[in-house]
Amino acid sequence: MGKIPANPPKSVPNRKENQSLFSKIRKEYVSLTFAKSLIFDPARLPLISILILAAELVLNVFVVQNVRYTEIDWKAYMQECDTGPLVYPAGFVYIYSALYFLTSHGTNIRLAQYVFVGLYLLQLVLVLRLYCKSRKIPPYVMAITIFTSYRIHSIYVLRLFNDPIAILFLYAALNAFIDGRWTLGSVMLSLGVSVKMNILLFAPAILLLYITNLGWLKTALQLTVCAMIQLILGAPFLLTHPWQYIKGSFDLSRVFEHKWTVNYRFLEPEIFESKAFHLALLGLHLTLLVVFASPCYKYFQNYCRLRHLEMMLLPQIEAQNRAEKEKEKKPKKSPNQALPASKGNKDEEKLTPDQEKFLKSFEKGIKKMSGKQQKVERAPEESPTPNSATSKFSIHFDRSTQLALLPIFLSNFIGIVCARSLHYQFYVWYFHSLPYLTWYTEYTNSLKFLLLFLLEFCWNTYPSTALSSLVLHTCHLILLVGIGRKMFRRIPDLAQFNKTE
């Protein structure tokens, strides 16, 4: 007798499953709703960031290949690294000395430009990572802002200034701080200062960030790390010509030329260069820092509390989600067959009613502080289906990054508002924080874009005029007032959330 042939594979169910999967993908991703979310939903920024980086790579290569390089400070940088004298800190000397040898004593400009293309893309990665975590800014805002700034592309790949390198270290430090890697952040911050002193404009807010998150003792340790980096980098110069090095590299009394100023073209040179004017601006700077210190401190306190909540609640939320997932995998049993869950396992995997109640109040607090609702998603109570979501709770804790970024960006912005003089390359000091600061205000989107457009206009007006300088100050003032109006409202105290329900 012949063997009974095996049953042929059933292809119909597989075909139906494939069709169902394809239909689900098409319904979710090939739709107007998904397309709109790519434009307007901050949660989609990680995907759009990849497209932004790819487009920026192409754009910058095109600029390098087709737009004429303009010599401004590159030769001076190369000479300083070769023969001196030093007018920048030691970190600058080491970095540009490496570029000096890499570019055949500074003669291979095209190679240097491509190095700065890489630095620019790395800068964008660090910036976009912070924005992705905060979920504050819609993707279209970032795309428009990044793509349309002629001045920023010029500063990076057509001028080769040292300002972008200093800012790169600053954003590396901010990413490290947000990740809780405090010592690495301090090292990056100090490296930024070792390239250019403007990074110190961020220092007041970062000091408050240290104190609220680490306490006084650990803050002192981090400040020691910052100081040690400066001493190590500057050792060859401090051991030979200490006074000349300090005076040349950290000269706070340096007088800028009126012909290069972007922000005070409407002043007479005598007033612009007067010490009384400089002292008045310093007084205004310190006053604004004191005025904004209290709300910034509260923002940092709430940021610290949210991070502690994350450490406490996230393991329990993940355990709850695992329990829900396991339930879906297990076959259904009749009531007589069902076994009672052990008490210990239940206590470990399920959130208590008080914790669920707290999550609701947590959601309200985030909504109050960010102006947008932070979703605390719950799965439906009915029995799960194969296509149902497996997570019972989901909280984007990284959104608390908003509470840390705002005071840090604001501290730098106040310094720029009160600067004695702004040169064209200084635009990079705050360009990447402008979308965040602008969208923090409650102005209409039209006014927000108008502010960004006018700021770009001012920084692209060469040579600067009395009108462009006045417009720049007006935009700064409007932006500062908009930030202040929102910041000085009552800030919710996260420590009290669980008492409000």
TrEMBL record:
Pathway given in the UniProt record: Protein modification; protein glycosylation
Region (Disordered): 322-351, 369-392
Gene Ontology cellular component terms for the protein in this record: endoplasmic reticulum membrane
Keywords from the named record: Endoplasmic reticulum, Glycosyltransferase, Membrane, Transferase, Transmembrane, Transmembrane helix
UniProt-listed Enzyme Commission number(s): 2.4.1.258
Membrane topology recorded in Swiss-Prot or TrEMBL: Multi-pass membrane protein
Keyword Cytoplasm: no
Location(s), subcellular: Endoplasmic reticulum membrane
Pfam families: ALG3
InterPro entries per the UniProt record, alphabetical: Glycosyltransferase_ALG3
Membrane-crossing segments per the record: 45-64, 85-102, 114-132, 160-178, 184-211, 223-243, 276-297, 403-422, 462-483
Reaction(s) catalysed by this chain's protein: an alpha-D-Man-(1->2)-alpha-D-Man-(1->2)-alpha-D-Man-(1->3)-[alpha-D-Man-(1->6)]-beta-D-Man-(1->4)-beta-D-GlcNAc-(1->4)-alpha-D-GlcNAc-diphospho-di-trans,poly-cis-dolichol + a di-trans,poly-cis-dolichyl beta-D-mannosyl phosphate = an alpha-D-Man-(1->2)-alpha-D-Man-(1->2)-alpha-D-Man-(1->3)-[alpha-D-Man-(1->3)-alpha-D-Man-(1->6)]-beta-D-Man-(1->4)-beta-D-GlcNAc-(1->4)-alpha-D-GlcNAc-diphospho-di-trans,poly-cis-dolichol + a di-trans,poly-cis-dolichyl phosphate + H(+)
UniProt protein name: dolichyl-P-Man:Man5GlcNAc2-PP-dolichol alpha-1,3-mannosyltransferase
